[in-house]
Amino acid sequence: MIIDSQALTLRVAAIDRLSPDLAAVHLVAADGARLPPAAPGAHITLSLPLPVAARPLRNSYTLVAADPETGYRLVIRRAARSRGGSQFIHDRLAPGDLISATMPHNLFALHSQAKKHLLIGGGIGVTPLIAFLARLRATGARFELHQIAAPADLPVFAQLIDPRAGEPVHIHPGRAGFALEALLRAQPLGTHVYCCGPAGLMDAVEATAARLGWPASHVHREDFGAAGGEPFTLRLASDDRTIAVAADQTMLEALEAAGIDAPSLCRGGACGVCLMPVREGQPEHRDHYLGEDERREGRCVMPCVSRSRSPVLVLDI
Amino acid sequence: MTAATPSNRPHYHPLRPDSAARAHLLVTDRAALDPSALADGVSAEQFGEVWVVAGHVHTLPRPFGESGVQAFRSVSHLLTMLGHRLAAETMGLRLYAAGIEPFVWDVAGVARAAGMGREEIHLFAHGPALRRVSCVHCRTILPAVTTSVVACTGCGAMLGVRDHFSRVHNAWMGVQVDAEEPGDVPAAEELA
Amino acid sequence: MTTLFKPDETFRDDYRYANSEAAILRFPFPFGEDGYMYGVNMEPHAPDRSDGAFVAAFDVDEHYVAECAERAEALALEPGRCIVLPHMREAQWDTLELIMESLAADYPDHFALTRSGDDWHWINRPLGIDQPFRFGDETTLPHPPFEYIVRQAQGDFTLQDQRDGTLYIDGGIATTPADWSIAFDVGMTFHEWHGPVPLAHQAGVFDRALQYLMRVRYGHPVRRLNWTMTINPRLDTSPENYPIWGPDRASLTPATIGSKLFLRVELQTFHRLPRSNALLFGIRTYLASIDDLTRVPKWGRRLHRVIRDLHPDIAGYKGLTRYREMLIAHLAKFDDGAITSPGIGPDLTTLGT
To answer: What is the DSSP letter of C196?
Structure first.
């Protein structure tokens, strides 16, 4: 069967309040069917129907656990400053609610050739590391985990990580006691390091590893991907028609929704079929087709993946 | 086989120490490092540690971390010691190999087994033009082929060496050259 | 859809093989215009016709039973044609799950899969298989999981591990290869595996294709068509057995070229595997003779033009050089110069004689 649906419809099975600002959400298929399995490190993107928003807010969350029959588990921190997604989940989401989600997608996978996996987490960045732990324990792989947690969160993280006797798992109260450079310096040849947490922590791991001579291919950080962007306006030169391109919509999707006949093939920026001429505005190129000169000149664009730096982009169609 | 087929052949560059590395180890298959293996302006001393093959049994190297030149009894001896050395190493090492093509890829194999990635290993193949060939029909390895056409020592097929190299097997693919018209074997040429 | 299987067909030795009219009309003719050059011709693998070779995730046609028997024979002679490196263990089970789920959903008359936790029950009626087993437990299947399921699917498959900014071919089965060896190629990167292909590297085709493939998402498979030619309906055109099939290339005559020369089309599919995050590359192979194809007027015209104007390096790489002129002369009879419609469809619903 070719699965051509874009979304899963999930039902909230339970919400566990782990602490005042940490909630574990258990999701199952709304129709009771099996859910797709997922590799450790995968995430799903939920469409959250915020009460006063015109369109649902799309937020990505790591799958802490994913089982086709028992369902998915997310752990979500209430963020003080946000677009409202985590607040919605903490304050308004309830068991029985239905929620739309994408298929699982993985941009932060374990490396198959690693002799040892070094996991470094900060705060809610622990979530993919928990998923990694389950796989590493099951396969008997060599690993070491360091989690930095605010002192108030220590008991919750200890419960989530659930270290077994003798396991090289360390939960640090705050960053002060965490000796990053000494840790990286001591790692045997063949170690891969995976970091998830605040940007400052991930940047520090990357920079320290590089300084110690680690090759970039052995350093991994969580990344939810750069899909979507700022909304902008398209104008068609032939009839001055304007088309709004929303933040979570591609230029090609907006053209198609407006009834424009826009040829396409791969829909992934590689084949060149959807190429369109640009008359005004600055394209933001995200394709793999155009050469350096073409990008700089900005006189054409691939609408299936690329966007606009300028508020208005005029296509010569 | 058509003459000008493009290939996946490896490209070799004279060696230069990687400035991002914590430490360097350079190994070669002969008694002294050939100067052609080093990039312009680079000296062996810049690598810190250099392993060579002295080729006699009274050699007693110290393979664990001494700077300068260490001599090993044979290529096999060097490769075995390299495996032990890498198992005791920490991240930040770069490994460099200079020698005939089959040797440098044997070194790459030891490094790969130790978990090193491609950017941590730098190879420079030089010396007599020869290729290690795997007969695709019978899987016999011909360790040092110097001509464009060669008889397989396993099954007797006249093999042309296809421009297709496996880093994992450390071999070029040998395919029967007269399969379409038996007996129509092109003249063997020396490899450049 | 009822399929009439032809279990007595063979793809070696006596070559008992023929395409029914229905098989000819659903043949994935690879040329959408009157010329051919390499490009990144990938598109979503979504059903785009009510019938035909692109509807199912893994197409099953009238040759299914015979092809599975051919695979069993090839593996009995050369077990090394199926290799999976140890770190691809998750990908093996992913492949088994994907193919079983797909076959059961696309062909409910032929296949059934029932599951309760890890206790699975697989039924394959055309092959007479009734197999209860535990998902994840290799000891409950007669073969390792990847080999087990590909023995029940048409076409070759490779498992690609995604790491270090590229794809590594870390496993696969090649019993119907167009002149490549899984034993030799295992462990190669995407660019290394495609090493011997002319022209495409300079045009950046492989760089773009790789970027595209690394972004393939679970639930959104993609596909492309590739083609070459084979003498006799021989599936196993491996380098290993080149001494056996190679001489056929010199055996064509103007009298036999129509019946003995086959267009070999690969419907290549790419599926993201969920538990391993690996990519499953399917190489579903279709064979139609020149006589078969020229029963479709559009295809006869177009094939003549494509072969006549093909870049010599591409012709050489695809092994056509020896008989190319003879083929062009034969196909010229079917090309009256009329305009051909864009797209690959036959523009017919039934065949003339």
So the answer is: T
β-pairing verdict for C166-173 and C82-84: antiparallel
Rounded alpha-carbon distances, angstroms, from residue A252 to A159, C39, C101 = 46, 21, 32
C280 closest CA partner among C126, C58, C71: C58
Do residues C221 and C45 lie in contact, with contact meaning Cβ atoms separated by under 8 Å?
yes
Q: Where are the domains of chain B?
A: 23-125, 131-176
**ipTM value of the model?**
0.92
- Residue C322 appears among annotated catalytic residues: no
Q: Are residues A96 and A164 in the same domain?
A: no
Same-domain check for residues A143 and A184 = yes
- Where would I find the H helices in A162-213? 180-185, 199-211
Joined tokens for residue B12:
């070799």
Alpha helix stretches (DSSP H) within A85-225: 85-91, 126-139, 154-161, 180-185, 199-211
Is residue C6 pLDDT above 50, yes or no? yes
Answer yes or no: do A135 and A186 share one domain. yes
Contacts of C94 in chain A (CB under 8 A): 37
* Pick from C41, C276, C277: CB nearest A271: C41
Domain that holds residue A182: 116-221
Residue type, C322: R
Structure tokens at B50: 């250099």
Range 20-39 of C in CB contact (< 8 A) with B? none
CATH of the domain at A146: 3.40.50.80
* Beta strands B171-176 and B158-166, pairing class: antiparallel
Token pair, residue A2, equals 């070719």
Q: CB A4 to CB C46 under 8 A? A: yes
In this structure, are A70 and A135 located in the same domain? no
**Is A15 part of any domain?**
yes
Verify that A200 and A130 share a domain, yes or no: yes
Q: Which residue has the tokens 């605040």?
A: A198
Among partner residues C218, C222, C276, which is closest to A103 by beta-carbon distance?
A: C218
Q: Which residues of chain A are modeled with pLDDT < 50? A: 1-5
Residues C124-130 have a mean pLDDT of 98
A183 with A245, same domain: the answer is: no
Interface of C with A (CB under 8 A): 39-47, 56-57, 87-88, 90, 94, 97, 101-102, 105-106, 115, 117, 161-165, 170, 207-209, 211-212, 215, 217-222, 274-277
Chain B interface includes C197 (CB < 8 A):
yes
Cα(C200)–Cα(C314) distance, rounded to whole angstroms?
10
Residues in chain B, pLDDT under 70:
1-7
Of A199, A221, A243, the residue that ends a domain is A221
Residue A39 lies in a domain: yes
Closest partner residue to C242 (CB to CB) among B4, B7, B179 is B179
- Quick one: tokens of C196? 């011997």
Residue with tokens 């040329």: C31
- Active-site residue among C12, C224, C249, C322? C224
Condensed to tens digits (0 to 9), the pLDDT of residues A29-75 reads 999 999 999 999 999 989 888 887 767 788 889 999 999 999 999 99
Q: Of A101, A132, A158, which residue constitutes the final position of a domain?
A: A101
Mutate to test the interface with B, among C182, C184, C193, C248 (most CBs of B within 10 A): C184
Residues A146, A238 within the same domain: no
- CATH code for the domain in which residue A244 is found: 3.10.20.30
What domain count does chain A have?
Answer: 3
* Distance spanning both ends of chain A, measured CA to CA: 38
The verdict on residue A106 lying in a domain is no
The answer to whether residue A279 is domain-embedded is: yes
pLDDT tens digits along B110-146: 999 999 999 999 999 998 889 999 999 999 999 999 9
- How far apart CA A169 and CA A146 sit, in angstroms, is 6
